Amino acid sequence: MAFSPRTIEAIAFLNGIKPTDGYSIGIYQESATKNRKVSLRRRNVLLHDETGFNELVWDTKSGGVVGIQVSLEEQNRGMGLMLVESDGTVCIKQRVVNVVLHEPSKTPDRLKKMKKAQNPQNQTLSDEDSAKLLQYGIYAIGGLIALQIFSSILPILLVIMIPALTYASTTLPPDESFDAKKEIKRVLRGVHLNDDNPNKPKGWFEETVARVTASVTTELSTTVAGYEVEFTNFAPFATYVRVHVIAAKCECHWVGAFGKWWFLRQVSVAPPPSG
């Protein structure tokens, strides 16, 4: 039995929009009348009962595939069961529909457009997508180059880092050596400021005023309201220190390494909410 052109068109449509679903057609012979019928399978599973159909038609109205049970060729009309929806999914509830028995030769454009709409992977990339793809490719190439450079200099880094870490572990200052009051005074005096900083005292007079002001402020801040000191050890290489000066509404940060306490920064903090 040769399949009708409409049946061939219907299976081509299904395999076009769902190429991995394994749609196929077969022949079923009625035991009583010996008439041969067409069947539709998905991954070798029959999608209907064993009655079979005269042919399969890709419905021009709904876009789905219908199994034709009654054909009125003189009127170019037929009636049958909707088996597959327009998106290629199997009908959960099959329903009886009336269809136009069109000539397949008049529908190649419709088939081409539907396959393209249902298979965006077959479409050409837009300029924006191409630009993104090119950008990702550049990132990937750059990452590989960076990885290659890093792998080539890794031995040199190890040669430098191992002695440095060894020296850091032997010169780590103990927590007891950190004098919070002394370090706070140095910060308030502007010792750590760059020479071009407008807040850094200039000359003997400004330095003297800054020294006295820092001493008074430190004593009042630490004596009246107190301060909080928090140590975070990255033993055996370094120690991170955070000092919260409550009255001055600021925090100061240091790191202890290589036998010295190195000032990092001073930040203002909001006072805790009252009550």
What's the topology here?
Layout: H1 5-17, E1 23-29, E2 36-42, E3 45-46, E4 55-58, E5 65-72, E6 77-84, E7 96-100, H2 108-118, H3 127-170, H4 180-188, H5 203-225, E8 227-234, E9 238-245, E10 250-257, E11 260-268
Antiparallel strand pairs: 1-2, 2-3, 4-5, 5-6, 6-7, 8-9, 9-10, 10-11
Structural write-up:
The chain is an alpha+beta fold and 275 residues long. The protein is 36% helix and 27% strand. The chain has helices spanning 5-17, 108-118, 127-170, 180-188, 203-225; strands at 23-29, 36-42, 45-46, 55-58, 65-72, 77-84, 96-100, 227-234, 238-245, 250-257, 260-268. The strands form 3 sheets. A 4-stranded antiparallel sheet has the order 4-5-6-7. A hairpin with a 6-residue loop joins strand 4 (55-58) and strand 5. It is rod-shaped and about 115 Å long. The termini are far apart. The model has no long low-confidence stretch (mean pLDDT 82).
Beta-strand content = 25-35%
Helix content: 25-40%
Radius of gyration: 41 Å
Count of helices? Answer: 5
N- to C-terminal distance: 92 Å
Number of strands: 11
**Average pLDDT level:** 82
**Low-confidence parts:** none
Shape call: rod-shaped
Encode the helix/strand succession as letters. Answer: HEEEEEEEHHHHEEEE
Tell me the strand order in the biggest sheet. 4-5-6-7
Structural class: alpha+beta
Largest sheet: 4 strands, antiparallel
